[in-house]
Design brief:
- This protein is mainly beta and 115 residues long.
- It has a single domain, classed as Immunoglobulin-like, CATH 2.60.40.
- It is built from no helices and seven strands.
- The chain is elongated and about 50 Å long.
- It starts with a strand and ends with a strand.
């Protein structure tokens, strides 16, 4: 994510490279980006295209009225059951690949909002 500090109206870009684990999100995959300001108010929710391997780039302008302090930016696959609590990967049943378990912790990056 760049920059790591911004003020309302500034442009911020969130990016991610292809995943190393071949997630196979599909040709119509989307990423959901959410921004929660320092007071806990969700000030942005948007979806953007993501490729089959998980890479994406999404730019947005910090919304007016976003509280100063440390905001949280999250980005995760949209409308995909990617963290199956049963321990099974329900998206690749029968696949002839070795699957690697990963953490289901919500990926969050800080963004310092200044005035």
């Amino acid at each position: 994510m760049a920059p790591s500090s911004a003020k309302p109206g500034d442009r911020v870009t969130v990016t991610a490279p292809d995943a190393a684990c071949n997630p196979r999100y599909g040709q119509d995959a989307r990423i959901q980006v959410t921004m929660t300001d320092a007071t806990g108010v969700e000030v942005l929710t948007a979806t953007a295209p993501m490729n089959d391997a998980g890479s994406f780039s999404y730019g947005f302008d910090v919304p007016a009225g976003t509280a100063a302090g440390e905001a949280a930016i999250t980005a995760m696959p949209f409308n995909i059951d990617w963290c199956d609590d049963t321990g099974r990967n329900n998206r690749v049943a029968g696949a002839a690949v070795t699957l690697e378990r990963v953490s289901c912790v919500l990926p969050t990056k800080p963004l310092t909002i200044t005035r």
